[in-house]
Amino acid sequence: MMVKLRMAAAGLLAAPLLADASLGEVYGRLHMSADYTSNGARSAVNVSSNASHVGFRGSQPIGGSLEGIYQLESEFAGDVGGGEWAVRDTYVGLRGALGEVRLGRFGTPARRVWETVDFFPEQVGDARNLIRGDYMLPGADAPLQGFDERLNNSVYYRTPRLGSWQADIHYSTHTGEERYVDDNDRDAVSTSISYRYGNLYMATAHENYSRDRHVNRFAGAYDAGPMRVAVFYQKAGDPDDRAWGVGTRYGGATAALKMQYYQLDAAEAGLGAAMWALGVAWDLVPQFGLYLTYAQVRNDSRQTLAPFIQARGVEPDEVSVEPGSNPRAVALGAVYRF
Question: What region holds the Porin domain (predicted)?
Fold first, then answer.
């Protein structure tokens, strides 16, 4: 009943947008896949909704170069039904000659660095299966604080582009779900500096949770004709671990072959892992595409990661992976963008 009410509210919001294009647009993506997955001990075939979402966004001139901006983005489950209202990038703000300011809930600059160089985002083989850092330490009651989050209660500033350079600063007053707190013990800061010149992209980012768990990242990509190559490196703290990856994509506008390899070097013995992914993607038209992907994780003796958890229709606690096993998956997916 609650989901129906939320969808009805979404329809009411969409109506004026469709009636007056100056107020904004409706956009989204329906991303489904049929997957064969193996956790190292058992295997199954599943249907998965992979970060499918619908949103509303727009801008309105205020005066001079200044404009008001907004976005409201919700996720839905195309496999089992239901959804979550405004859990993705949702904000209101200002944009002008001096940059952009947002208030709301949205992904961090460090997250954007990952997004730019991952060749399998939001599908089997997503790099976050290794680099997110939210794995369980032996004997712990809960997983580590992960990265690549969308943070609640956030203030965000993006500088105007200064030649080839741009900086982003993101502060969350409280990463939890409380609407009022009397301290900022659960705050977070994420920053990045990016450089784009011709076919070259480079970026570095720092993210810190409550001045404790933190990560530093570097990423780069280069386009040479039909080929794109990318590299990624991160060093996390508390606990200390490192992760790195390389990937490439070769093809044109309608078909491409892509592959990537990522490795996690954990501070504690037995908690490392490596993942590789290989896939073919076909964009039949700009709005619709198909893909076929294979990915596998090789865990060290105490690690329990898998290549089919992040940004998909499965929760980590729904998947049981034996320590030291080698989970794998094959996915045939379809993506419709609107």
Answer: 8-300
| CATH code at position 26 | 2.40.160.10
81, with CB counted inside 10 A (0-12, 13-18, 19+), is exposed
Distances (CA, A) of 76 to 107, 208, 279: 18, 30, 25
Question: What's the CA gap between 5 and 16, in Å, rounded?
Answer: 18
pLDDT(1) > 60: no
Mean pLDDT of the chain: 91
| Tokens linked to 91 | 């904000």
Domains of the chain: total: 1
Q: Higher pLDDT residue, 102 or 39? A: 102
Is residue 160 classed as helix, strand or coil in its secondary structure? coil
* 132-158 confidence digits (pLDDT tens): 988 878 778 888 888 999 999 999 999
Burial class (CB within 10 angstroms; exposed 0-12, middle 13-18, buried 19+) of 30: middle
Instruction: Give whole-number Cα distances, 74 to 50, 100, 148, 231, in Å.
Output: 13, 22, 18, 31
Both tokens of 310, joined, read 């992040």
